[in-house]
Amino acid sequence: MAIADTLTFRPSTAPAAVPAGGSPPPSTSPGLIALRLWVDEVVALTKPDRVHWVDGSAAEHDALMRELVAEGKLIKLNPEWRPGSYLARTHPGDVARVEARTFIASENEDDAGPTNNWVAPDEIRGTLTSLFAGSMRGRTLYVVPFSMGAVGGPLSHIGVQLTDSAYAVASIGIMTRVGTPVLREIENGAPWVRTVHSVGAPLAPGQADAAWPCNDEKYIVHFPDTLEVWSFGSGYGGNAILAKKCFALRIASVIGRDEGWLAEHMLLIRVIDPSGRAYHLAAAFPSACGKTNLAMLRPTIPGWRVETLGDDIAWIRKGADGRMWAINPEAGFFGVAPGTGESTNVTAVETLWGNTIFTNVALRPDGDVWWEGLTDEAPPHLTDWRGEPWTPDSGRPAAHPNSRFTVPAAQCPQIADDWETPEGVPLDAIIFGGRRATNVPLVLEATDWAHGVFLGSTVSSEKTAAAEGTVGELRRDPFAMLPFCGYNMADYFAHWLRVGQSLRFDHAPRIFQVNWFRKGADGRFLWPGFGENARVIDWIIRRIDGKVPAVTTPIGRMPRLSDLNLDGIDVPEADLEQLFEIDPRSWLDEADLTEEFFATFGGRIPAALTSELSALRYRLRAAQV
């Protein structure tokens, strides 16, 4: 079979090389015929021993988990502590997302942009064909039809993953809606995205399998022009669960660009005030900036409640009423375990009561799990993530720093009753945040949509400890999308501007920036964070309602200190002033860094954003006079 025939899936009449089990219903619909032909072609390339079409039933899931336990690939946890839960231990070389091996294979290199790894499609198709040839020998190829968003929903999209990893199948079953109802959508003509995954570890007859099969050579390749994803070599997380970052962000951002909507790395919450009025907020935070904690916030202000709608991804479209509507396209949470505990995020801990797949955490002697941060004190004896004995004196973490949990979102104790509504929820505000020790105030409101896009384009965290009055080295992560945008990020900024131009000013979500991490000259955090962040959300909502004024500053609109609800907490006046202090000289230095960042896009940055930068400099210089 020629390379082009293999990877562009030209129709073939060749029958499947192996008999299929759990086959889709017979159909003469063009959609299912195209799906079956594509599966046949991948089977002919990868040569699995068996093919199984996943129906998504509970019986199928239970059988799959029993098989993984019997093969030594999962450890069943004590049902007394974690019913329906399992522990997976990966190969030590397969523990994280492999960004250096993640590629955008667009026809034109400029369409990938400087923040993505570009590779020529023809070149990488040849490489992938060689790698995938016979890669599934001795294994089962699973056909996993999945829906991002409610099946058949107006904001939903469908994909099919072909994989030889039963662990990936089980994880996809938690993170998406899987099975026969999705096939019916394809049968009825719904478009679908093709994704293929192999751990790259074929088995010879009689060869014993590894507990965690994988390959040292790894590729995660996205084809935005043909809406495909091919992943080879890794069995871990987002490298193997292709519905997640690969489809839901990199490919979906391309579809959103072409169709006029936004695929975003954003949490989604409903905030309910003491009177019972509900507001919907989406928020983008880079890693280690409190995203999951905000998604599951428990306000400290009496009478306020937060309902979780999503913790990681939001798809946002303009509705018939002119407002922006958002859904969480996922069905589960794939969260980092270390640092998740009762003192930081009790909601997340309560979510993990059962039906959870843990990966690379530690195992307690009683058959439960543990990780750093779950409790204040470590248990005296554990088995660490590598399967080795561990005590608090071992001098190494018991759980891998990137250890994970995969759990149904429906188990979250504060999940909204209507979190799966197909139409989504109307957005009132969009929030951007980074981890900044300097400069960026506790909360800031954009003056308009273009200014809000400028704020999103400059999201960053400080990599180095900042000296007093200086800006540390910045790790840029605009819109928290730097690793996840499937096309040129300058064009992504332009797309955000176009979306805003299609909205009436009074229908557009208000845009804010927050920073929970500003420090004083002594290195102390100035804001208590966690549940107290509800006090910032309270001000944001009162701004949306027009109940409080704002102070106009060179960088945007900020609250009057008297308008912040600080009842019940003790934040010294001097700390509050530092939280909102604006040093024009330091901000002009930051403007220079922003100009350097924009310059990396080779003149492709939209004029509206360079104008925002010029206007910022003008206001800062005027403030110095």
Q: In a few lines, what is going on in this structure?
A:
This protein has 625 residues and is an alpha/beta fold.
**Apparent shape:** globular
Proportion in helices: 25-40%
CATH class of the largest domain: Alpha Beta
CATH architecture of the largest domain: Alpha-Beta Complex
Can you walk me through this structure?
The structure is a single chain. With 625 residues, the protein is α/β, with parallel strands linked by helices. It folds into three domains: 207 residues, Phosphoenolpyruvate Carboxykinase, domain 1 (3-Layer(aba) Sandwich), CATH 3.40.449.10; 233 residues, Phosphoenolpyruvate Carboxykinase, domain 3; 79 residues, Phosphoenolpyruvate Carboxykinase, domain 2 (Beta Complex), CATH 2.170.8. Helices cover 28% and strands 20% of the residues. The protein has 17 helices and 32 strands. Strands 1, 2, 5, 6, 7, 8, 9, 10 and 11 form a nine-stranded mixed β-sheet that branches. Strand 1, helix 2 and strand 2 form a beta-alpha-beta unit. Helix 3 packs antiparallel against helix 6, helix 12 runs antiparallel to helix 13 and helix 12 packs across helix 17. The longest helix is centred in the C-terminal third of the chain and has 18 residues. It is globular.
Question: Could you list some keywords that capture this structure?
Answer:
single chain; 625 residues; alpha/beta; Phosphoenolpyruvate Carboxykinase, domain 1; Phosphoenolpyruvate Carboxykinase, domain 3; Phosphoenolpyruvate Carboxykinase, domain 2; nine-stranded mixed beta sheet; six-stranded mixed beta sheet; 28% helix; disordered N terminus
